[in-house]
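Human: Can I borrow your eye for a moment on a structure tokenisation matter? Separate attempts, laid side by side, tell us more than any discussion would. Could you pick a protein and write out its sequence and tokenised fold? No explanation is needed for now; the record alone will do.

Assistant:
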Amino acid sequence: MSSLGPPGVRFEFVDTPARPIPSRYRTDVVGFVGFAARGPLHVPVAVESWEQYRTAFGGFEGAGYLPYAVRLFFENGGRKSFVVRVADPAVARTATRSVDLVDPQLPPGSVAVPQLRLEATSPGSWGDGVSVTFTAGARGLASVQIADGESRTRLLGVSLRPEDERYLPRILSVRCDRCGLMSVSNGRGLERVPGFEAVCECGPLSRPRAAYPLMAHPDPRHRAELQLPPGTFRLEGGVDGIRSCTKHHVLGMLDPIPQGLEPERLWGLSSLLDLRDVSVVVIPDAHRFPTPDSAEFVPTPPEPPWCGDLMEPAAPEPLFVPPPAPTRERPPSWSDEESREIVAGAVRFCELRGDCVALVDPPVGVRDAEAVEVFRGRLTPSHRAGLYWPWVVVRHELRQHSGAEWFAVPPAGAVAGLTARLDLSAGPHRTPAGHTIQGAAATTEAVADDAHAWLNEIGVNVLRARSARGVVLEGARSTSDRRTRRYLNVERALIAIRDALGREYAGFVFEGNGAVLRTVLGDQLRLLLGDLWRRGWLTGGSAAEAFDVICDETTNPPEVVEQGMVVAEIRLRIPPPIEWLVVRIGRSVQGVETFEVGGVR
């Protein structure tokens, strides 16, 4: 029986909980720009694993640092990235092959018959390695085997009849309008064609997929009774188009950049303009790709740092290992000035966007602390950039071409992976400094303590090989000259908080501008910032010490209200990283006593 009493209006007074706030805004997405073996040109493609990168852009067979940077990103904890392949569109060519079809009603060679044009899915010399084998079958059907390097795909029972669901051009022409990739989701060994499901690599990988490396375009004169000719046909004529690349192809913007960030074209870095999820930018191929004879390859793993006692060992000789000889077209030989301009362009891009940071590194020819200081001095100071040196030594995946097992790559990709991992586990207020880089065996240069101290002071984040720890990132600074904007993780936390506030409170626009709105807005801001303080984004013994929100008549005088604005003033205390831990050791009558003094910035 109901206990509500007689029918009618009934009032219940309850405390209404505040509107929930998002637990975390994603800040771990990284944008990579560089040279790849294959894939669409100047189009950002979402990549969420190393295998997905290989499907879309190939492996290490290309000429450039991009695949190594992406692999280090995922090895060090990265989850999602957007990759942009760069090339000169005026020079890049797609490998093709035209195949004469067979007319069973006429003798071979009696008349001209239509052709089937085979075309690689993207420009580049990689397409020259694609071959197609046609084998005649019963009832006008055929078996097709597509070979792409070590990959083999079989399609059984395909047809040249346009009305057939197994029509070969239709099967091979399933592609995404956004990224241009083509794939199917029913496994690597495609023994059956009917019922295949078309999917795109833009989305997350849920199960193994096999991407077709080519498309088939029928001749307009195509007739249903035509058949595929038996035999093997190899594509040809592919050109990478990277040798003629300029900095404008990489940056995609005029120099100097016109007011309002008007791109010359959506080339390279400019194609990331509308991807607001990208919070970190890395251009691993901003530097010259050295020739194999520029230095000696190292055929054996580097020796680990010496560890004999508590004393720091003397700095060993610098280790410089160039990358392997490319198997295809060589990338442009950037001069040091061009490399600096590309690096500066990445930083300028982040400054103009205002919601991302650039991780940059000096060229490979920078071999000592004095040269790094010169390079740093030529960069415009910025709180949107972090500079990392020296380069790291990784295992050479194509050593059969040069005999070397180890070579040097820029460290920014690995740092981006560490940054993304900590963003996901804690937040952007946590710095990746102090963490070991996975996949790195050594650094190209050994940095002494005095050099490290000076480089840290001028905003260069040093990587050092430590015994029993591996290669450790030992710097957390931006390249800014302002003491209040010194640390990159503090800047990234500010960006994330600003983004959270903008997304969360956009719904307040067009509300009635009065005391009630200001009170509600102030309470909501305190609620969100209080959650960030409890999660460690802000420092202070209490919420009142960590932040302060003012949204009343003092920040909203009549002249502000008349302009249709409501102003909230927020003061934050974001904890900077501790860089020195001072431990004072003294001797007393009872023995040796240790006192932890604390951190000094």
Summary: The first strand starts at residue 29 and ends at 34.
